[in-house]
Amino acid sequence: MTPIPPFEIPEQLRELTERNIEQARVAYGQLMGAMVKSTGMWMAAMPSNGLTAGFKSFQDRAVLFAKQNAEAGFAVATELTNAKNIQDLLAIQSRYAQAQMQAYALQAQEFARLMAQASQGAQPRS
């Protein structure tokens, strides 16, 4: 029986992938910038009250989390391009999945806290 040759990603494919990841990172940054600008303009046009202040906090945190999650995704994609074999690929993906699940749980807790604060601020005072 002949041994199976080891899996290896060609260097040209690694370089192409790294360039594509960087282009995607730049495009995502532009998209996020435009989204933040447009929602900022929308919020500025809204009347100020407890609900809009709570929504602004929620929005700011959502943008921060989106940026953090995207950066984690770009980082793992870059790390995957440097994997030497299937075992490396699986280990990188596993670490990323575990870290992101923890991050998502913390983000959900933070969103729940912000929603509770916003709803308290929106209730009429007696």
What does this structure look like?
By secondary structure, the protein is mainly alpha-helical. The chain has one domain (11-122). The chain is built from three helices and no strands. The protein has helices at residues 11-45, 50-81, 86-122. The chain is elongated. The termini are far apart.
Keywords for this entry:
single chain, 126 residues, mainly alpha, 3 helices, 83% helix
Helix content: over 70%
**Distance N to C terminus:** 83 Å
Overall 3D geometry?
elongated
Q: Could you tell me the strand content as a percent range?
A: under 5%
Structural class: mainly alpha
How many domains make up the coordinates?
Answer: 1
Enumerate how many helices there are, as a single number: 3
- Structure summary, number of beta strands: 0
Mean pLDDT score: 85
Whole-angstrom Rg: 21 Å
Low-confidence stretches: none
Q: Output the helix-strand order.
A: HHH
Largest sheet: none
